[in-house]
Amino acid sequence: MSVLHSIRFTLNGKPVQAAVPVHLSAIDMLRDVFHLTGTKLGCGEGECGACTIIVDGVSVNSCLMFAVDCDGRDVTTIEGLRTDEGLNPLQKAFVEHGAVQCGFCTPGMVMQGTALLKRRSSMTVEEIRRGIEGNLCRCTGYRKIIDTIASALHETSSEEIS
Ligand code: FES
Ligand code: FES
Q1: Ligand 2: which of 40, 78, 105, 143 to mutate, most ligand atoms within 8 Å of CB?
Q2: What is the CATH number of the domain that holds 74?
Q3: pTM check: above 0.85
Q4: Domain range enclosing 112
Q5: Closest Cα to residue 150, out of 76, 74, 81, 96?
Q6: Which of 60, 80, 100 is where one domain is finished?
Q7: CB neighbours (10 Å) of residue 104?
Q8: Could you tell me if residue 121 is inside a domain?
Q9: What is the spatial distance between Cα 158 and Cα 146, in angstroms, rounded to a whole number?
């Protein structure tokens, strides 16, 4: 039987605690212990970004992070973006711009977009594209996702995306 480690951290604005084995990944803890299934497991190897969460203000692939390393940190998942009115402005923009198709990449894209928007008050289309290059989408061709993030910056994206 594996030894359990006691951790305490802030999850979506609330203090939480858990007892986790040392090898448990953050995504498995979020999904299996806290039942926050909005964070998606894609590749499990840090390649697709589907599992993106925000830790202490920085986007992180939760498949590559150990649950024990959440100890003392401020962790936000897609569920934590919800407002009293429902979807937050960036989430609404994804819907309004048709940037959601199958939806599998969407939670990770929204979290990456959120991290970008927190970091930068303005970005070029190219900077947005580079900012989401760790997040893969098989459906949209990225243009609508980039336009969505650009619109959230109150910028008009008119450049062609190849
Ligand atoms: S599931 Fe984490 S990067 Fe793909
Ligand atoms: S909407 Fe299907 S993978 Fe992005």
Answers
A1: 105
A2: 3.10.20.30
A3: yes
A4: 89-152
A5: 96
A6: 80
A7: 17
A8: yes
A9: 11
